[in-house]
Every structure is written in C-alpha cells, then in structure tokens.
Design goal:
Blueprint (H helix, E strand, L loop, with lengths): L17 H12 L8 H24 L4 H12 L5 E3 H8 L3 H13 L3 E5 L7 E5 L1 H21 L5 H18 L1
Antiparallel strand pairs: 1-3, 2-3
C-alpha cells in the first residue's frame, strides 16, 4: 500500500479490478440475486486487512503492539495528568478485568504506567502514564498519523470527507 519510490502507480478506478471480476462472475452465475454488496463489502474487508498489516508493521518498528498502544492512547487522550481508573480503561477497551490487569502489569513493568490505589475508594485503581509512556505514545501516534495519512494520498480533501461520512454512517449500523 505504500506508494514510495519504485512502487506501481495507483490503479485507474475506471479499470476493472479483482473485486469487479468477482462481482461480474457472480452476476453471470446468479443473475437472480443482488450481488452489488460484493463491490463494497469485499473492498472494505480487503482494505481493512491491508491497514491492519500496515499498522502492525509500524508498531513493530517501535517495539510495541496494538494492545499497548490502545491503553497508552486512552490515557494520553484523557489529558493531564493522563490518569484513568483501571475500570474505565477496561470498559473502553471492551476486555475483561483480568485481561486489563495483565496488560497493566506488563505496562507497569516496562515503566510506561504507574498504578495507585484510588484516594476516595480503595477498591479502585488509578492508572497514570509515566514520562516514558507519554514519550512512547506521542512518538508512535505521530508516526501512525503521518503514515496513515499518506495511505490516503490518492483521495482529495472532498473525497476524504465524503468517505469519512459514508463510513461513519455504515459503521453506525453495527455499533
């Protein structure tokens, strides 16, 4: 997906691609059903795979992974003092409390977060980014945003906004 030196130019959107050929084959074989979703759903699925692979490779360059970035980014987006309860993190990440505890143990051992018993309720644990955690998440997010913006270079500002709105509308049906 990177369009760096030596990479092939982007394909002509008016030329049939693999997905168009699959859709056409289904139209030929099953003219009795509407197969128009193939051209949309298959492309979304394939783009998702490419984006996932790209992000995974970028994260590996920083010696981190999606799980680590998710937790660090939730804390960073909370604003100073970059602190949330473990329960809030768990609910946002949609994982079990045991899974969150394991993540937090690893992050604390790596010096990226600290955990503190909540001042008013000793059953709660506050999680706070350390300076090393802030530095890592800022570097990784900065890199990801730059690289992922480059992946959209084939779209102008109007097309990007139109795509953003359409994807938001479609995603809303699932969430």
């Amino acid at each position: 997906m990177d369009h760096e030196q030596g990479a092939a130019p982007p394909p002509d959107p008016d030329e049939p691609d693999r997905v168009d050929r699959v859709e056409a084959a289904w139209r030929r074989e099953r003219p009795d059903i509407d197969v128009s979703s193939v051209g949309i759903v298959t492309r979304i699925w394939r783009i998702g795979r490419h984006l996932d692979t790209h992000r995974q490779k970028r994260l590996e360059m920083f010696g981190t992974d999606r799980v680590t970035l998710d937790v660090l980014a939730m804390l960073r987006r909370a604003g100073a003092p970059y602190r949330r309860t473990a329960g809030e993190l768990q609910r946002s990440a949609l994982i079990t409390s045991g899974g969150m505890s394991q993540r937090l143990e690893r992050l604390e051992a790596a010096g990226l977060v600290t955990r503190h018993i909540h001042a008013e309720d000793r059953r709660k644990v506050d999680v706070e980014l350390t300076p090393a955690g802030i530095a890592l998440v800022d570097e990784v997010v900065g890199d990801l945003m730059l690289q992922e913006s480059k992946l959209l270079d084939g779209l102008d500002a109007v097309e990007r906004e139109r795509l953003r709105v359409l994807l938001k509308k479609l995603l809303g049906r699932f969430e």
